[in-house]
Amino acid sequence: MEETIWKAVPAIYLTEEPIAVDEVIAAVNSENAGAVDVFIGTVRNSTKERKVVRLEFEAYDSMALREMEKLAQQVRERWPVEKIAIHHRKGVLQIGEVAVVIAVSTPHRKEAFAACQFAIDTLKQTVPIWKKEIFEDGQIWVAAHP
Amino acid sequence: MEETIWKAVPAIYLTEEPIAVDEVIAAVNSENAGAVDVFIGTVRNSTKERKVVRLEFEAYDSMALREMEKLAQQVRERWPVEKIAIHHRKGVLQIGEVAVVIAVSTPHRKEAFAACQFAIDTLKQTVPIWKKEIFEDGQIWVAAHP
Amino acid sequence: MKLNILMFGITKDIIGQSKLAFELPDRSTVPDLIASLKAKYPALKDLSSMMIAVNNEYGQKDQTLQESDEVALIPPVSGG
Amino acid sequence: MKLNILMFGITKDIIGQSKLAFELPDRSTVPDLIASLKAKYPALKDLSSMMIAVNNEYGQKDQTLQESDEVALIPPVSGG
Fold this sequence. Notes:
The complex is a heterotetramer, with two copies of chain A (146 residues) and two copies of chain C (80 residues).
Chain A: E1 12-15, H1 21-26, E2 35-42, E3 46-47, E4 50-59, H2 61-78, E5 83-89, E6 91-94, E7 98-106, H3 109-126, E8 129-135, E9 138-141
Parallel strand pairs in A: 1-5
Antiparallel strand pairs in A: 2-7, 3-4, 4-6, 4-8, 5-7, 8-9
Helix pairs in contact in A: 2-3
Chain C: E1 2-6, H1 9-15, E2 19-23, H2 30-40, E3 51-54, E4 57-58, E5 71-74
Parallel strand pairs in C: 1-5
Antiparallel strand pairs in C: 1-2, 3-4, 3-5
């Protein structure tokens, strides 16, 4: 008999390794769900027509995980969510790489979209992670200044 | 030097084989995109508290593909979409299997959600595909009767 | 003229075949075809909606049919 | 009391270190700390916002700080 090696995927995760989108989706798998909405944030090659070379994400790990947990709980209280998973990358990211993945499964599709959109909007406001954009001729901490 | 075997994934696809979600997502990959929204429709284990055994999807293939192409075009006209991919399954599907995947990449996230939600809502109204729900004690063509 | 009408989903069950040879006066329109089908197969009247596809497009109101057209009966769709 | 304040993002660049030992009167509050930091490092005033985290939670208005607290300076977040 073959042994199946089952790798448990955490629902809330902060990592320096590339995010495996399919694992995040698998983490919200549920037979009670008819809909899954998945948001994937990727590194664009430009910001306001300025060419981006790479990004660097820094996190206050312990608090970021706590805020991501709180966010997941908030989403579960507001919508009939089967499962939610939030994975965020940190460290140096090249163009095209995945910075964040949020997957939400719900019985029906309307709630999946609403819950997922709320989750990414709120994550960007509350989770202590900081993004530095590196251009060819400079760098900025995004949103730091008015 | 190793040879890379590159498998082209069609943007619009109707198939009796299981849908590879990661391939649909890869099909909308773009360095100009900062956001990808992915909708995955899966087979629920119940409908209105009645236990579902399996689903059967039937399609008018040639017209379904045409309507899916039209839908993709409509989405591209309405939002600043980088890429869109729509894969729909047909044949017999078991509980938990993926029936449809729509992936949309856009520069910013708001448009990705709006475009993807419009796409699945419209697909359900216009694309000639029919779903039969098989229960333990009967079966119905979904939406056929008022 | 004689149309070979493709049947899908519940219409296939109602009519009992996936392709129906159907006789219709020349220059009949989409609504004419729907009326004739409903007259011959009354169970079609119970459907939430019924559309005709002509050459892989939804048929327009008053569109005239030709024997060479690929015609299909489209009951309420339910993909996704 | 002496706080060891964790610095992130742009505040680390402004202050020049990732952990700042900072002297503050006993029973100081979150707003007291913010005011003291801005007085000592005027560049902090230019930020869009600045929050204090106390023990991994956003600090409440008028929350009193203790030497044993884990305190962090939170410039505008920009994850996602």
